[in-house]
Amino acid sequence: GWRPARGLGTQAGGLRAERPADSSKQVSVSRAGKEDTLLSAAHRVKEAGKDFTYFIVVLVGIGVTGGLFYVIFKELFSSSSPSKIYGDALDKCRSHPEVIGVFGESIKGYGEATRRGRRQLVSHIEYVKDGLKHMRVKFYIEGSETGKQGTVHVEVKENPEKGRFEFRYIFVDVDTYPRRTIVIEDNR
């Protein structure tokens, strides 16, 4: 008959543990009313603060994203961006019979190599001459003819009437033997 004794022991322990807890509970009840309302008010303010912080973070995020889209959009679609000038000049190179004759079909263009070896940087210089904006762009091309490489030199000038840049010239220097320069456009 050991089992009932163990049962009694735990019960007695349980009762003993509960008694002091009961008496302390009664004391704190009267104080809790005020504290609860204060706590919940503080909690509400804290939560509102947190929500406001999230709101600001979201706004900043939207702002940054919008800014990036604007920059990308301007870069790709504005007539005055190096990438747009590069794209237009590359198209003219691709459709020029002499360039196709030297470099072959499927002509690819690429910029300067970055430190990581990616060839993305289209080097360009902007300057103002006679009150008009000019830009020089330089990039490289190669086609299906192996070993043939070329450097494309482009200059554009702002046309204030049309509000866009127009080509002054596009030359392709054949960098491999026999060296020569192919003039694609010259409006100087």
TrEMBL record:
Which compartments does it reside in? Mitochondrion inner membrane; Mitochondrion membrane
Domain of life of the source: Eukaryota
Annotated segments matching region Disordered: 1-29
- Write down any Gene Ontology CC term: TIM23 mitochondrial import inner membrane translocase complex
**Pfam families associated with the record:** TIM21
Record keywords: tRNA processing included? no
InterPro entries found in the cross-reference section: Tim21, Tim21_IMS_sf
Q: Tell me the subunit arrangement.
A: Component of the TIM23 complex.
Q: What is this protein's function?
A: Essential component of the TIM23 complex, a complex that mediates the translocation of transit peptide-containing proteins across the mitochondrial inner membrane.
**Full protein name:** Mitochondrial import inner membrane translocase subunit Tim21
